[in-house]
Amino acid sequence: MSREELEAREHRYFTDFVKKLEQDFGSKNLSYFELNLETWRQLWRVLEMSDIILIIVDIRFAAFMFPPSLYKYVCEELKKNMILILNKIDLVSPSLVVAWKHYFLSNYPTLKIITFTSYPSYNLRSTTENKSGLQIRRRRGKLRMAAEGAQKLYEACKEITQNQVDLTSWNNKITEEMYNTYDDDECNINVVTETIDTGYKEHVKYKGGSLTIGCIGQPNVGKSSLMNAIMGKKVVSVSRTPGHTKHFQTIYLTKNVILCDCPGLVFPSTTPRTLQVTYPIAQVREPYTAVKFLAERLDLPKLLNIQHPENDQIWSAIDICDGWAKKRGFFTAKTARPDTYRAANNLLRMSLDGQICLSFKPPGFFDKQEYWNSHPEVTEISWIQAKDKACKEQEESDSERSNSSSGDENSDSDDESDDSSEDISQPLVSNKFELLQLNQD
């Protein structure tokens, strides 16, 4: 089959697939999903050329980000092994991590599951005074390799390959980099961006004694950060903007271990479109529905330590945004009113980054919560999260006195922006001429 014939057939199949989805679910019930055929082709080529498929999900929304149809296609039709990476486990409790792990093992028995955190808890620290559950996720300039997760991935791949590929160099690399740190400014980007050959090539397993690992995941699951952690240094640029990886990338972990990074791809689902987080937060026109969704499941007034603008007991999404705007000093330029939109935007970014942490639980979690809390694997997960007993006691002590002070409102100045300067902090002044005086001083 020629390249032109393959592309024509893929175009026809994809068009029929989209039409069938709209007929079965209706265009209004379907979520946003990838409609660019070229992006799907990159996914198909990664699946074809890879020996092992990594599917990365955010542990907070694990079931939402795991596509069962992809699992069925890879494991049953392609007859390949799939490894599920439960990423960002430092944002949830160890018992929840264990519960999700066993949920996937029971429903998808051929999966191998690895827990991973590319930014462990030593990169998380609470605000100075107000420690009522918020955590500032600090990227301190040095990208620390999550060696525990990388070691688990190596062991899983070694078990799958059964010594058909020599992975000694990979093991040595992990051992060496447990003691190394890299500064983001010093690390060169070492990524090969491939020009995709859309022609079909028959897959040869472990061709040339090499192991090819394909990395797949929806936008914003931390795929680029995870690949940097596996490499032990920065090889893929990282952004909180969804869809930051736009091209197929080939990265040589060692001479015979290759990582193939596929662009983040949104699969079809029936998730409400306002809650998908599939495009930059700065471009969201109506963020209040998402804030309402958070407030219905978390006690935001207590977490944020804010006062109701009207001293009422009933909160709306707008009230929460107004209260946060006043607390943070977000005011409109001319009228000096609370900048409700900017506050809502900021709250969504905090949620995305894990400062406001909403997580979903597997079915029956609360019925067996005591069982999960005492599960033997909880100790191992706590160790991977880099949370020792002293840190836990300090967090509990901080939580007890969380309501004793209002805290410093400008403590999250390290937040990164989504290609905009919206979060650049400025001194609070009464007029523009006072700002000039401050700059001169």
From TrEMBL:
For this protein, the record's Gene3D superfamilies field holds: P-loop containing nucleotide triphosphate hydrolases
Per UniProt, the keywords (alphabetical) are: GTP-binding, Nucleotide-binding, Phosphoprotein
Q: Which residues form a coiled coil?
A: none
**Pfam families on file:** MMR_HSR1
Residue spans with biased composition (Acidic residues)?
409-422
Task: Extract the signal peptide range.
Answer: none
Looking up SUPFAM superfamilies in the UniProt record yields: P-loop containing nucleoside triphosphate hydrolases
Task: Report which superkingdom the organism of origin falls in.
Answer: Eukaryota
Q: Any stretches that span the bilayer, and where are they?
A: none
Q: Which residues form the CP-type G domain?
A: 40-268
Named from the GO MF annotations, one term is:
GTP binding
User: Region (Disordered): which ranges?
Assistant: 388-441
| Matching PANTHER family | GUANINE NUCLEOTIDE-BINDING PROTEIN-LIKE 1, LARGE SUBUNIT GTPASE 1 HOMOLOG-RELATED
Question: What is the protein's known function?
Answer: Possible regulatory or functional link with the histocompatibility cluster.
Q: What is this protein called?
A: Guanine nucleotide-binding protein-like 1
